[in-house]
Amino acid sequence: MPSAPQADAAPRPVALVAPDAAPASADTASAEAGSPEPSSIAADASVEAGATPTPTPPPPSNGVYLGRKLARPMSHLGAAWLDRAGRDAVQRPSHVLDVAGVRAGARVCDFGAGSGYFTVHLARRVGPTGRVFAVDLQPEMLTLLRQKLTREGLSNVTPVLAKASEPSLPAASVDLVLMVDVYHELERPDLTMAQLRAALAPGGRVVWVEYRAEDPNVSIKPDHKMSLVQIRREAAAAGYRVTQVDESLPQQRIVVLAP
User: Fold this and answer.
1) In a 3-state reduction of DSSP, which class is residue 85?
2) Cα dihedral 235, 1, 191, 121 sign
3) What is the full DSSP assignment across 86-148?
C-alpha cells in the first residue's frame, strides 16, 4: 500500500475502456456455460482443443518484474493512514464493491487487508450468509483488524496470515479476490496470481484497484502507481484477461480480471 498522497484530485468522469478479448478456447466455453468442471480437467480440455495453455511469466529479477520496479509493502506502522478521515470520499468503497460485483452471500477475499478498511465494507455487503477472508502478511495488521471487527460486531470474517507469495486460501474457496493498492507491492506477482487463480471458484474474478501512473495529479511515489498498459501486460502474463476497467475514482482505476 502506498504512502499518503499530497492532495486529492478532483473527481473524474466515468470512462469506458475496452476489455481484453476473451480467448477462443474450450476453457472459456466451459466457464461461460457455468460448467463445474475442475480447473485441471478444463485445462486439459483446452490443450487437447489446441488452445494456448496458461502462460508462465518469468520471476522478478533484481526487484524488477516485466519492466516495473516492485514497491515495498506498507508497514503496519502506517496503518492509521488506511483509516484516515476523508478516505471514503476519494475511495468510494460502495462503488468499488458495485464494480466488483459483490453480492449478499458471496465468498470474498480482501487480499492485503491491512487494518480492515475494505474488510468491514465487504463483510457488511456479503452479510451473514457470506464470508470474508481477510488476508495479510503482517500479524500486526491482523491484530488491528480483529480489534476493528470486535468494535463493529462483525462475525463473518476469517483473518488469514499469509506468507510472502502464498495466499493460504483453499482451492475454489472464493468468488472474488479484491486487491486495493496491493498488487504493485507483491514480492512474487507471478506466484501469487497463479495461486489466487487456484483459489477462485468457477466464474470467479480478481479485482485490482491501483493508482494511475499516467495522471500527473496523482502525487504518489512512482513505484506505487501502475499504468493501464502495465496492468494489461502483467495480467496477460499471469493468464488473466481484463474484462472491465472503471476510471471514475479520483486517483485510482478499478480493473476486473477473469482467469
Assistant:
1) coil
2) negative
3) THHHHH-HHHHHHHHT--TT-EEEEET-TTSHHHHHHHHHH-TTSEEEEEES-HHHHHHHHHH
d(CA 19, CA 244) in angstroms, rounded, equals: 5
- What radius of gyration, in Å, describes the C-alpha atoms of the chain? 18
Closest CA to 100 of 251, 209, 236, 249: 209
Whether residue 211 contacts residue 224, with contact meaning beta carbons closer than 8 Å, is answered with yes
Hey, how many other C-beta atoms are within 10 angstroms of the C-beta on 191?
18
CA distance 126 to 164: 27
Residues near 70 by Cβ (< 8 Å), separated by ≥ 6?
60, 63, 64, 184, 185, 186, 187, 189, 223
pLDDT in tens, 38-76: 332 233 333 333 444 566 776 777 789 998 999 988 889
All domains in the chain, ordered by first residue = 68-258 (3.40.50.150)
* Residue where the block lists cell 479476490: 177
